[in-house]
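pasting for ref
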Amino acid sequence: KIAARERGLTVRGAFGEGSRGESYFYQVSNEFTYNVTESEILGMVESFVGEVIAREERLRSTMFNFDAYAFADKCFRALGTLSSAVRLDYDELSELISQVKLGVGVGIISVDNAYALDDLLVASRKNTLELNVGRGDELRLRAAFVRENLKKISLKPLFF
């Protein structure tokens, strides 16, 4: 966040001001608009996000190369938990999807559409979940919703 602030940018949770970052979901925006053109703002945001992506890719590779089996085990266990959980709170879901996305990012989990995991995370938030499946035991409804939707995403662990 400090590096963003030094460039006149703000990093927030994906769901706006006051929201916390949930696993891997953030938004980057400009802090100042006075005397700055739209194209300058876009350039600052694109440059910063590009640097974040490059750093994240290096860190992922470092983590994987440090202990590939432990890394894969954590990612595969996360996928297994998501696929079979009976109760699932949102914070745990967020953390588990983050682990699965790490596996997708280093190529040990294949997926037809990685953005479907992001969509699943958003659709599993309390209010959106209620709109999708109705009211009831939130933890059980979320787990069932996630299990059902994971079947449509076609995630496959690639053993090495």
